[in-house]
Design goal:
The protein contains seven helices and eight strands. The chain has 215 residues and is an alpha/beta fold. The longest helix has 18 residues. The chain is globular and about 50 Å long. The N terminus is likely disordered.
Length: 215
């Protein structure tokens, strides 16, 4: 776990980090594997992003970080709305790279690569193909991106807009659970909200996968 301590005039600094998944896309609807490729936001995806923006309207967000993927960046812009906030794109916040599976329908992949597909979902820590990323690689860049954001924002509140598997992998780090358990938690809904607080250098998950703004 991160163990970074910041002090200022003998007062421990609190950093609040909100995280969310991008809005619903056409690829989500069509059950296409969506990694570094991109499906366009649907009307619901846009509506949900705006609803999350309304929910966070009174939250004093200092900065927004987004995956450089179009669906995440556009979601971030809809959440921000007319607020004057810095929006920073980061490649490290992108979804897992599915390689030659990217953009293909799940059922087609399962039929063509049954063994590898099974490993992906049931024993993700063992997943390794010649195309795309491993979960361990995603975990390393997830931790790297989080550490970078913490270093840049030693206090205040930030929002991170990213992706489903990225969020699940990052949560294994925050919760200190094995990568093999990455798919055992509830899948993050589109625009679902997570909240993390850092006090005295320790990260604490306050809530996760909250969808009350669209329910």
């Amino acid at each position: 776990m991160i163990n970074i301590i910041y002090r200022k005039k003998e007062i421990w600094i609190l950093l609040t980090i909100y995280l969310t998944r991008h809005g619903l896309t056409e690829w989500n609807v069509n059950r296409r594997m969506q990694g570094w490729g991109n499906g366009e936001l649907t009307e619901k995806g846009i509506s949900d992003a705006k609803a999350l923006g309304k929910r966070l309207k009174e939250v004093p967000i200092d900065k927004v970080y987004s995956s450089s993927s179009k669906r995440a960046f556009e979601t971030a812009k809809y959440i921000i709305g007319d607020r004057e906030l810095s929006l920073i794109q980061m490649d490290d916040l992108r979804e897992i790279n599915f390689g030659d599976w990217d953009g293909r329908i799940r059922e087609e992949i399962e039929a063509e690569y049954p063994d590898e597909f099974k490993v992906f979902w049931e024993t993700p820590h063992l997943f390794n193909r010649n195309s795309g990323e491993t979960f361990e690689h995603v975990r390393k860049r997830a931790i790297r991106s989080l550490q970078h954001i913490i270093e840049e924002n030693k206090e205040g509140t930030v929002l991170i807009v990213t992706h489903s598997i990225f969020l699940r992998v990052l949560m294994t780090y925050i919760k200190d659970i094995p990568l093999s358990d990455v798919f055992k938690s509830t899948p993050p809904g589109n625009t679902s909200l997570f909240k993390i607080e850092m006090t005295d250098g320790e990260l604490k998950l306050i809530f996760e996968n909250d969808m009350q703004h669209v329910e």
